[in-house]
Amino acid sequence: MAKKKKIKKTNDERILDQHNIQYDETFFDWIGKGQQALLEAQAAGIDSKSILKTIVLRTSKKEKDHLVVCLPLEYELDLKLIAHELNEKQVHLADNKTLIKITGYVHGANTPIGISVRKGFPIYFDERIKNFEEISVSAGQVGRSVRVNQKELVKLVKGRYLKVQE
After folding, report:
1. Residues 6+ apart with CB under 8 A from 158
2. Strand partners, 21
3. pLDDT 10s per residue in the chain (166 long)?
4. Neighbour-count burial for 117-133, b at 16+ CB within 10 Å, e otherwise
5. Tell me, what's the pLDDT at 1?
6. pTM
7. Which residues form the domain of 58?
8. Cα(114)–Cα(153) distance, integer angstroms
9. ∠ Cα 32 57 158 (to 5°)
10. Which DSSP string do the residues of the chain spell out, in sequence order?
11. In sequence order, which residues have a C-beta less than 8 Å from that of residue 70 and are 6 or more positions away?
12. Fewer Cβ neighbours under 10 Å: the N or C end of the chain?
C-alpha cells in the first residue's frame, strides 16, 4: 500500500494552530484558472464572494506606511473611497515588484494572517463579508487557502471593517 503524502503546513496554518483557530485547507488556483476557479468553488458549495484576495496599499504619508485590504476576488477597490474612509489624502497600490520585501510574500500568496503577525500592518476587511460565517484567505502559498471563521480571523489579525467600494 502506498503511503499518503502528507502536505507540510504553511507558517500561516501554524499561526492558526497556535491560536486554536479551526480551518480547512483548500486549494484554489485563481491566478491560473480565474473565473473557472470560482465556478469550481461554487460547485463545492462555497460562495465565491466569501473567497478573499489580499491587497497591500501604501498611504500618502510615508513610502513605508502600508495597510492591507481583504475583499472578495471578484470585487475591485475604490482607492479614493478608501482614502476618504481612512482620513488619508491618498492611498496607492503597493509595488508588485517589491511586494516580497514589503510583506514577505510573493504576489498571489499575501495573507492577512502572516502580514499581521510579522509586519503589524493594519488589516481591513470589506464590510460586505460580515454576512459570511466562513471566509477563505491565502495560506501563504500561491493556490493554497484556508477556510476559517470570519469573526475569529478578524479578531486574530485585529482587523476592522471598511467600505471599499460604492
Report:
1. 116, 123
2. none
3. 455 556 789 999 999 999 999 999 988 777 777 777 777 788 888 898 999 999 999 986 665 689 999 999 889 999 999 999 999 999 999 988 889 999 999 988 999 999 999 999 999 999 999 999 999 999 999 888 999 999 999 999 999 999 999 8
4. beeebbbbbbeebeebe
5. 47
6. 0.89
7. 22-162
8. 12
9. 95
10. -PPPPPPPPPHHHHHHHHTT--EEEEE--HHHHTHHHHHHHHHTT--GGGBEEEEEEEESS-TT-EEEEEEETT----HHHHHHHTT-S-EEEPPGGGHHHHHSS-TTT--HHHIIIII---EEEEGGGGG-SEEEEEEEETTEEEEEEHHHHHHHTT-EEE----
11. 52, 53, 54, 55, 112, 123, 124, 125, 126, 129, 137, 159
12. N
Positive or negative, the Cα torsion across 139, 142, 150, 59? Answer: positive
- How many angstroms separate the CA atoms of 69 and 86, rounded? 12
Place of cell 504576489: 107
Q: What is the pLDDT of residue 95?
A: 87
The answer to whether residue 60 sits within a structural domain is: yes
Supply the CATH number for residue 105's domain: 3.90.960.10
Grid-cell match 466562513, residue found: 134
